[in-house]
Amino acid sequence: MTIKEQIREMTLEEKAGLCSGADFWHTKAVPRLGVPSMMVSDGPHGLRKQDLQADHLGINESIKAVCFPAGCAAAASFDRSLLRHIGETLGNECQAEGVGVILGPAVNIKRSPLCGRNFEYYSEDPYLASELAANQIAGVQSRHVGTSIKHFFANSQEHRRMSSSSEMDERTAREIYLAAFETAVRQSKPWTVMCSYNRINGVYAAQNRRALTDILRGEWGFDGFVVSDWGAVNDRVPDLQAGLDLEMPTSFGMNDKKIVQAVQDGTLQEEVLDRAVERILTQVQRFEAHRDSTAVFDREKDHQTAREAAGQCMVLLKNEDALLPLNRKAKLAFIGEFAQKPRFQGGGSSHINCSRVDAAWELVQQNPSAYPQTVYAQGYRTQEDCVCAQMQEEAVQAAKAADTAVIFAGLPDAYESEGYDRTHMRLPENQTALIEAVAAVNPNMVVILHNGAPVEMPWLDHVKAVLEAYLAGQAVGGAVLDILFGDVNPSGHLAETFPRKLEDNPSYLYYHGEGDKTEYREGVFVGYRYYDTKKMDVLFPFGHGLSYTTFTCGNVRLSQAHLTDTDTLTVQAEVTNTGTRTGKEVLQLYVAPPKGDVIRPVHELKGFEKVELAPGETKTVTFRLGKRAFSYYDMDLQDWRVEPGVYTLELGESSRNILQTVQVTAAGTPKKPAEITLDTTIGDVLQMPRGREIVRPLIEAYGMMSADSGNADCLGESTAQMMESMLRYMPLRGLVAFGNGKITDADAQKVVEQLQAAGKPPQAVC
Fold first, then answer.
1. What is the β-pairing status of strands 146-152 and 192-195?
2. S-S: 408 plus which of 338, 486, 534, 537, CB 3.0-4.6 Å?
3. pLDDT score of 57 more than 70
4. Neighbouring-strand partners of residue 685
5. What is the residue extent of each domain of the chain?
6. Would you give the DSSP letter of residue 231?
7. What dotted CATH number matches 551-666?
8. With contact defined as beta carbons under 8 Å apart, do 316 and 388 qualify?
9. How far is CA 733 from CA 430, 632, 682, 743, in A?
10. Which residues contact 403 (CB under 8 A, 6 or more apart)?
11. Where would one find coiled-coil regions in this protein (predicted)?
């Protein structure tokens, strides 16, 4: 029996019932028609399958699973293939556990460092976020398991998340917050999309037809089902009409009855309900048709995958005097509770019940002959933020006796979680005090950070090396040791800017908004788009990451020097490892627009490639740029537009470390013809077709031969400049007022009509 046949055989009550969960984690079954139930489980960096007590906040225990690097760390890999491999591994785990859809990846934009859920999200940059999400989705779904990309959309804070309205213009939405989803949806076609809790310009995401139907389905071609975030349904029938197919978790039949009643009283067309049921059953049947009874959840094997992944994600922020890598035989002091009990994941719905956890100090203890002179001091407690004088003194003494002190620091669990935002960017005071105390007695100090978002570093100038481990998953301890001692060459790069202080962030003044309204006043100037355009000093720029080797970039080549907005530009560059170790370089391509009429960021990431090179080896890296790489969203056109002019392509190792530049000329996309009225300025008229010719009689009557001729023989230079500027910025109606009676309203209106006619396309001749 086909899905359409099953739907025809269903009662109205059965169809309505299929649009909500059977319980917390399962869709409903219709046994008499052979419709099975499907299980979904939380993700996105591990399988949080709950067998008994169910919740969506990570409170109750789930099965033993493997925790991979969280989104904050995974994005720092800048590695599409790694994200795909993690996805494949997660997909296999789901098959082994009978899970049809894993909830993730999470791609919401990191608008502020304070967002409590930033550890789960990828980046401040939508291009990077969507490219990585596309690959994780492709990996999971290659195992015939669905994904649920989330949270759609503009979910950038936990504060009042179930009622707050994200207020933004169309350009900001298109270029930043929707763009984080777009490539992933178009390219990898997730089985489901999860709507967010928040409202968007006053309309709840679950009820936002513009987002769920017009854009997601109509423009992007999404053909799966839309599922609510757990508890995000606000008004079931309007939500269904807007494009929200499946409500999770169960409503215990209450909302099912509302759907039935709406069909019976004619306020809901039954075809809308049938369409939602078909979308849901299509994915349920898709999973059932490809159930893999041979799949095995090999937790030890997947743990090793998690360790390898973590090593590719960590970012070496600083390495003065090449302090790293360290010698295992040297006198080393491991300091900090996180060396013994690492923080490696965030709190809330993504919390994994780990099969095992590797701590760096524990691994050292297991192999004392390999680390004969390494000692440990706790230094601080994570459960309280007060300096313990005895602990700190023990750490100082251990550091004094060591060649190098390694401090494991970061944010405790209570600082970052789903459900609330941070209030500051500081480390706990006891950790800051410890770092400063150790730095005073040992200049050779390494700080390893375990955190899900940027932190302030007032001590940065007093330490030689900083390794950003992020929340790197359950194998974090082994991965840290791999990098500390050079078994793995660090290759992570920051997927977000680290500002010097919270107040530097572009959303600082209005991040949480007022009441239930949050205005995104910074517009498209999020993250590096703001910092780089303002030329603001930052702690570490977007894309930054060091290596134990060095690279050069050269021989940049373009497929063409001139573009139309339908062309695809191929950019090639040669990358060479000029150091003594094998390493991976992340070459980033930024596009800098010409100085035009539109306010735009100074540059934007439009390409990146990660390439592994042996010492002395050279490889060619290739980028392909289409129209979108050069476009901004034109709200008048309601489409993407390329401004004509010369674009600079910047190849670099970060948004601030540009190695090579090359230029290309774009013909551009025509603007929407301007609406011409008596309020149109003379300066704007002069830019229009035949504008100078049409307006010339009025300008002459006004007393100047040309608005840009400087023809003012009897005037001083400054007066002439004043007159010219006044004329340029004067509306057409102003010529009547200042025309000394020589220009009438009819004269000005005639010019408007002539300009309108000149802007129209020519009529076809039969």
1. parallel
2. 338
3. no
4. none
5. 3-289, 300-533, 551-666, 682-759
6. T
7. 2.60.40.10
8. no
9. 68, 32, 10, 10
10. 330, 331, 332, 444
11. none
pTM, to two decimals: 0.93
Interior angle at CA 655, CA 654 and CA 656, nearest 5:
90
Cβ count near 197 (within 10 Å): 21
Judged by DSSP in three states, 569 sits in strand
CA distance 657 to 77: 18
Query: CA–CA separation, 365 vs 385, rounded Å?
Result: 28
CA distance 318 to 294: 46
What angle (nearest 5°) sits at the alpha carbon of residue 392, between those of residues 391 and 394? 65
> N- to C-terminal Cα distance for the chain?
57
- The CA distance from 154 to 230, in Å, is 17
Over residues 302-342, the pLDDT tens digits come to 999 999 999 999 999 999 999 999 999 999 999 999 999 99
Tens digit of each residue's pLDDT (9 = 90 or more) over 193-212: 999 999 999 999 999 999 99
d(CA 490, CA 510): 36
Q: Which pair of tokens denotes residue 732?
A: 């057409």
Give the percent of the chain with pLDDT over 90. Answer: 84
Q: Which candidate, 112, 109, 68, places its Cα nearest to that of 453?
A: 112
List the catalytic residue out of 42, 229, 565, 634: 229
Annotated catalytic residue 747 = no
Given its phi and psi angles, is residue 46 left (phi above 0), alpha (psi -120 to 50 degrees) or beta?
Answer: left
- Please check whether the domain covering 3-289 is classified as CATH 3.10.129.10: no
What's the mean per-residue pLDDT of the chain?
A: 94
What confidence score (pLDDT) does residue 765 get?
Answer: 40
Length of the chain equals 766
Name the CA dihedral angle for 473, 479, 484, 486, rounded to a multiple of 10 degrees: -150
Distance from C-alpha of 525 to C-alpha of 250, rounded to nearest angstrom: 40
Pick the CATH number of 300-533 from 3.40.350.10, 3.40.50.1700, 3.40.50.1260, 3.90.550.10: 3.40.50.1700
Is the separation of the CB atoms in 104 and 87 below 8 Å?
A: no
> Quick check: helix, strand or coil at residue 613?
strand
pLDDT for 716: 61
